[in-house]
Amino acid sequence: MAQGNAAVYVPGWRQGLGLLTLFTMLLSTWGATRGVKNDAEEIECCPENSGKECNLPDCPSGQYCAWAGEEIGPPVCKPIPPLPACGPTVTAELVIKKLTDAGFKSGKSLKDPYDCTPKPCGDLPQLGPMTAMPEPQQQQDGSIVQRFLFASFKGSFQDGHLPDGRPWWRLENSLKTIVSDALGGDTTAAVEITSGEGEESGVEINATISAPPEGTCKVV
Q: What are phi and psi of 206, to 5 degrees?
């Protein structure tokens, strides 16, 4: 019987070769994608108003410096998202309704927008119960001023610190956050906080509420 140079047949070799090729392609794609993602996440940056102590380069075009807070991680560059739709026009009536619905009431202490331990803790609770929240007042420039009175507060904001030693600006930032959240966020209103002496005792903190700045949201 004549014998040719026939190839040796190994059952399943074609299937095995196909699986090996597919695995190699998937591994290469995963490695490339993973590398790009890590590079993007590692671009640290200087948040707005960070001061001269931060000398990192600006974010690439089409990105901004995002910072959730020191408890979350360092500031990193993120793609600029499309503008969201603007919220409803802010009026004095809307302000008092939204704040009341969010739990701003006389006789109650305000809560921070974050949790902390061990209890009691936090910044806003150090003000004590809110003794009054007068009706918001419309200003000539269109902004609205909402006053918060804390007559039982025993500290002094003028030294720049809370009774427990934490900086006063942290309290103002917390109040700004919860007021903004109650109104609907940055797309509804811009909020600025100022502190002053109470009429008779304690401290008075004012929230100046105005329309969102241009570029924050899209009017629809």
A: -110, 140
